[in-house]
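Researcher: Next sequence.
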Amino acid sequence: MKSFWGLIPRNILKYKKRTVLMGVSIVLAIALITSLSLVSDGMIKNNFKNAIKDGGGNYDIRLYSNDYSNIKQTRSDDLFNKVTIVSDVGMYNIPNSKYKIDIKAYDDNSKDILNFNLIKGEYPKNENEVALEDWILEKLPKKYNVGDKIKFEYEVNYVNGRTLKSEKIEKEFILSGIFSFDILGKDTSKIGKAYVNEEYFLKNLKRYDLQKISYVSLKDEYTIDDALIILGLTTSYKDIMYEPNYSKVDMIKTISLLNKIFNILFIFIAIVAGIVIYNIFNIMVTERTKEFGIFRALGSSPQQIKSLVILESIFIGIIFIPIGMIIGSTFSKIFINEIYSIKNILYIPLKGIKVDLIIGFLTIILGAYFPARKAAKISPMEAISSNNNLSLKGHKLKASLQSEKDKSIRKNFSFEMNMAYLNIIRNKKRFITTVISLNIIIIMLFSANFLIDTMNPITLFKRNFKYDFVLSSFEIEKPTNGIDEHIINSLSEIEGIKEINKSKDISSHLKVSKDAVTTKGFKYLKSQCNNNELELKKLEEGNYSFPTYPISYDDKELENFTSIIESKKIDIKDMKENPSIVIAQNVNGNKYTIIEEGDLVDLNIAKYNNNGELIGEDSKTFEVAATVKGKFLSNKEGNKDIVPIMSNKCFEKFLNIPNYSKVCIKIDNKADYEKIKNDIKLVIKDYKDIVLKDYKSELELNKKISKNLIITLYGFIGIISLVSIINLINVMNMSILLRKKDISMLRAIGFSNKQVRNMILSEGFFYGIFSGGLGCALGTIISFFIYLLTKSNIGYQIYWKFPLINILIVLVSTIIICITASLIPARNLFKESIVDSIKSIE
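Model: Next structure:
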C-alpha cells in the first residue's frame, strides 16, 4: 500500500507537461479570484475613505444645539463610543482678499474623530493659542510661523429672537500649530479653518447663543438606524436637532451593494474555474484509462483509484494555488495599484485568502471527483482495450443521428463537417460545459458594456456638463450674494462667448394642502420631525411642508421642458409675469404628493434686508402650470424629492431673489479657450462666493475615473476570457488526443491533411457559433433586465438600445477564437507519420 500511494508524487513529477497544463489553469483561476478580492477590498476601503473625506470625519451622527448644557450630555450617553463637541466662535475676513477664516472651538477628541492632521507645532492647549489650516495660512497678508502672535478681528453672528445679530471681537493669539483638514470640496473652498480650544469658548463666548455640534460615533452593537430611533424616543434629546452622517449611510449602502456584486462575480468565477478544472481533470483521467485498468488488474480497488485521482488533484492544488495567489497579488499591484493603492505586493485580504482556498480546493476536488468516479468504475479489460475513450456508445449515436431533426441539420454539411458534428454528439457533456464557460464571459461582457455605457463618468459628464464654463454661487438667498447682472454684462462683453444661460435656486419649503399628500408623503414628513413634539404638533395641525430647492431658468431653457411635461405646452410669458411654476417629483415608486395642474402651493423662504440680515420668513402662493413626467435632476444635491421650477423673472419678482446661483457659458468653436477662461477669472476675481468650472479640466478628471472603471471591468473579463480560452484549447486538444487513432485511420484510408484540418476547424466553428449565438442572446436579455432594475433606482436618466454592433463583434470574435483554438492542437497531428501514430496508441 505504501508504494501505491507513493505513485502520487511520482505521477506529478513524471507527467510534468500534464501537471503544468493543469497548474496553469488553476493559477489563472486563483489569480483572477485574488485580483477580484483585492479590488473588492480596495473599492470598499476607498468608499470608506471617501465617506470619511466627504463628511470630514469618522462619525455616525451629528447633533445640533445652541444650548451648551443640552449638547454636552452626549459625552455621558452609553449609546456613543466617541464624542467631540465643536462650537462656533466667529468668522474673520482676511483684508483685501476673498478668503475667510472660520474660527471654531474644539475639544481634545476632535483630532480623533474629525479629519485633522497636525503638520507642525501642536494643537492649542491654552485659551490664547490658535492653530491654522495650512493653505489658509498662506493667504494672510504676512507670513507667520509657529510661535508668532497673530491678531484676529472676527465677527460673531448669533440669533436674538428671530433677528440675526453680529458683534466684532478683537483677540490676539499665539500660533501654536499648523494642520491640514481633509474634506471633499476643499479645493474650491474660500474658507479656511482656525482651531481654538474649548476653554477659550467657555470663558469668552458661552453667553452667546452660538451653535454647537456634537459629532458622535456609535458603539459596535448599534446601527445608525437603531441610534436614530433611540434618540427619537429619548425625552432628553427632544430639543436637540440631529441627523445621520449621510456620507456614511450612503457608504454602508454602497458597500452592501458592492458585496452583493462581488459575491455574484465570485460565483461566476467559481463556475468558470470549476468547468475549467473539471475539463482538465477529465483529460487527465481519460488519458490514463489504460493505466487505471492495469492498476485494477494488479488488485487495486475502485476506492483506491478514486482516492489516487483526488489526492493527486489536492497535491497539485497545494502547489499551484499559492502561486496563483502571488501572481494575482502581483498583477493587482502592477496594473490596478493606481486605482486602489495596494501598498504591499503580497498583500491579500483575509476574505480573499478564504475565498481562494474554498473555491480553489472545492473546484479542484469536485472537478476531480466525477472523472475519478468514472475511472473507478472501469473494468480492467474494458480500460486496457478502450483506446482511452469510454464515451463512444455506438447504439446511442446511431439513434441520435437517425432522428429527423438531426438529418435536416446535417444534410447540407460536407463530410468533414458531419464528422465534426458526430464528435460533438459523442461528447455532449464536454461541449455543454465549454459553451457554458464561454457564455458566462459573453454575458459578463454585455453587462460590462452596458454598465460602462450607462455609468461611464465621461458619458455622464458629457450628458450633464453641456457648456464650456460654469459659474456657481451657493448663497444667493442673501441679496448681497450670488452672480449679479453686473457680472453677466461683463461676461457678455468677452469676445468669443456666444451663449449665456442663467439659473437660480434656494433652500425653501413647499407647503401643500392635506388632500395632496400621499400616505408615503405623510410618513416622510413624520420622519423629518425626528420625534420633536413641536414639529409633530405642526404636522398634526395640517402644516404639510416639504424641504426643497426651487430652481429657475431663462426662457430658452424653460422651452426644453415642453417635451417632458404632462401638459402639451407651457406658457413662458405667463410664467414670467405671474406666480406660476412647474412641479417635478423624483421619488421612486409612489410619490409624496398628488399635485396636479391648477393646484395652489406655498413656498416659504428666509427673508433678509438689504444688508443681508435675516429678518424672518416669507411665504408666496404659486399656481402649478404643469407637472414633469419621470425624473428631473437639477444641479442641487438636495433637489431629489419635489422640485418647483419657474422662470428667472418670476423668481426675482415673487421671491425677491435678484441674483443667480449658476451661469452656464458656451463659446464659439474658433474662440481661444484659454484666453476666455482667463477673462472670466478676471471678471469674478473680487467675488468671494463664485466658483468657476471649465469643461476641459473637468473632462480630464472624469477621464481618469473612467480609465480606472474600464481597466477594472475589462481587466477581469480579459483574465476570465484567457482562462476560458485555455480551457477551450484543452478541450480541443483532448478531443483530438482521444481521436488520434480514429484520425490516423482516416488518414490511412485516404483522408488528406487538409480534410483533417477542415474537420477540426468545423468542430471549432460549431463551438463558436453555438457559444456566440447563445451568449449574445443571453447577454442581450440580461443587459435589458439590468436596465429595468436600475433605471428607477439611480439618480440619472439611463438608456438601453439593442446592441447590434456588440452582437456582431462578439459573434465573429467568438467564432474566430474557437477556430483558432482548434488549430493549435491540430498542428501536432501531422508531425508523426500515420504508422507511428497508430503504433504509439497501440
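Model: Residues 20 and 494 are 70 Å apart (CA to CA). The chain has four domains: 1-53+249-388, 60-244, 392-466+696-842, 475-688.
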